[in-house]
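Kindly inspect the following:
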Amino acid sequence: MDLVNASINDVTNMGEIMAMEGNPAESDDYKSKVDELFAKVDQLQQRVNEVEEFYLNTTTKKPNTSRNALIVKDKEKEKHIPSMKKLQQDASRREATAAKRMQDLMRQFGSVFRQITQHKWAWPFMQPVDVEGLGLQDYYKIIDRPMDFSTIKNQMEAKDGAGYKHVREICSDVRLVFKNAMKYNDEKSDVHVMAKTLLEKFEEKWLQFLPKVTEEEEKREQEEAEAEISMQLAQEAAHAKLARDISIELYDIDTHIEELREMVVKKCRHISTMEKRKLGVSLSKLSPEDLSKALEIVAQNNLDFQANAEEVELDIDAQSESTLWRLKFFVKDILKNRPKSSSKDGNNNVMSPDAADNHDNNIVYKRKREICDALAKTAKKRKKRPSS
């Protein structure tokens, strides 16, 4: 996105030439088209941020392959990945089916519950403790959450999702009935002994029933894991498609930028020989980093330009008008924003007219190997159209 914005800024600068050359109407039309490109780039930036956020947050590790290979792979995966809407429908059906299985499991557990509640010692636990009737003023200080079999039964029979959601919840409340009684009553009291005895019987029956519970939980866990993988793949496919669409749109924007740039060049005058000489002098003032950016501009329109050679040669006269105008505005912006203190000597490195004449046709930049290596890393070829 930075490269696209830079290109738009570049053609915006070149558009100023039209105004200077006495073409205000054409200049306004040109600027209008550039504004449209800016608006489109802003929209694309938001979509790019969405894709970046997804891939930053995802935990899935992909093999170390090239971007093009991943795009092809993702396109193949899309053919076999269900849509997000279908996955949501499947999730709703899966939840409903799992809830029905759990309801069946709780009905089966009802037989265990009845065996305990029908025991001859179960009568003290059938109804809530009559705290006021029995004068148990300290009951609620000792027991945090009272529980009894009638309350459990009502919860088991509740409709419209108001009751228990899992059989373990019933098991927990049954244990709570006995543990409350054992906690409040003395160990030698009849109620304590009855509660302890029934709790032991219940635990025995629960252990016999537990394999069914474990099987259902494992099945549910497996279903959720498979659903999560499917959802992840669907999200990856959707964002991969979004990334490809953005790539295609960026290519279209780049094409429009090139068309606008060429339009401006055709409407504007040619750069004079004197301006070329001044441009050569200005280029010689650039730092290695800025020089590498300038050479990048040249490389974009000149595939034969060797920026990584031991000796970098730039023929000003051989460059297109588009490249020359881009270089002129680039150098102008760099030198305009450069602090005066950054000059290497008192005369600001200005070359004499005789020295400028020596740059007539060719400007030869000889740098040490390390500078050439830096230039090689940043010089780029003209972009090719992305695969769609």
In short: Residues 59-72, 342-385 have pLDDT under 50 and may be disordered. The beta strands are 312-315, 362-365. DSSP finds 13 helices and two strands in the chain.
